[in-house]
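Quick note —
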Amino acid sequence: MAEIKPFRAWRYNEALTQKIDSLTSPLFDVVSDKQRKALYQNPLNSIHLSVPQGPNAATKAALLLEQWKKSGTLIQDKLPAIYVYYQYFKVAGSTKDYCRKGFICHIRTYDWEENVILRHESTIPKAVNDRIELLEKTELQVSPTHGLYTDASFELETHMDEAMRAPWYESEDYQGVRDVLAVIHDAAVIKKFVEVIASKQIILADGHHRYEGSLFYKHQQKQANPNHTGNEGYNFHLMYLTNTETDDLRILPTHRLIHDLPDFSEAKFVAQLQSDFIVKEIEDADTVYEIILGKKWAFGILLKNRTLKVRLKPEALSTLKWNFPQQIKELDLTVLHYFIIEKLLGIPGKDQRKSENISFDRSFSDCLAKVIREEVQMAIITQDISIEDVKRVCASGYTMPQKSTYFYPKVVCGLLFSSVRESEFAIPDFAPNFR
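Predicted structure written out below.
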């Protein structure tokens, strides 16, 4: 089903990669203001391409990219390759050493209705528009999205492990994760990767905005090209692929912050909760996540003057009016966004994607601090989502609310870049035949 290709990455020159830690940056949608300010101080950091600043930011990024190419700051690899990317990490509450294994390649940009690449959550329109403009101006994919394939035989991991015997470079990123990059040039091995993925559907784990940006760009370029063949660079997208069957695939919760609601009354909100939820007051706010953990339709609510554990009454589910299949209605986040955000807070489901009253934070401590400082009116604490839930949503053809999943760790930007400019995308004649 899914067509992938090796590609010739643009990378920082060898002298600079000796300090690769100083060049990598968080993805555009997770980098904090504090991180941005610090990273912008390094004129060679990848953030200048991924999250350019100021007016005409995308145009500035394009000019900077050309400067870096001409000066040799970035150099394009001569041979097409599959790039193997391992992330070594730990998670809170566990002593296990995790290693998420995957590889970076070009993948054909499929329309959603083709059911080759499957989405599981909604996007925020403004973020998509930002990614489109950046791609239009630079013709560069600055960071890979994260896709999932399923292979219980682990056929590709042996080849990836072999490549990792001679890594190109490694770094410790802002998450405390050790990122290691290696390469596969062997044409026979690359063909094996192409063949294995050709039979797979791909679940889009992370990067919905960037992928939708590529989709828009593909259709825009196709319409403008009377000689369109389907093999041009604009038909492909940069993706990091990992196996759903591994034990090292972690999905962390993303909490909801509610703010700037006019005429919000904490007392009225708590009273209204009683109609659909079993409500229990919690004395110690720090314990609310542990209290809700593993309980279906249970959430923590941090308010200025109190902390609550709420759990949907089972009989209330039948009153959920959204036109979703039953398995989607039963998801925790569907319950949250319907019964709390739409029904009680008055933000209709159709408006939630672009609502200025909802924001997101993965850190429980950040949520608690923002409530205490009265920067938000409440924080709704959620639980993590299983990969099986993600698969069920994708199979249904529906999507979860935006920011439903946080696959951990995040891929970093700056290890490599991918050009869709035709002269840089094409595989040179002297390269091995990968078809």
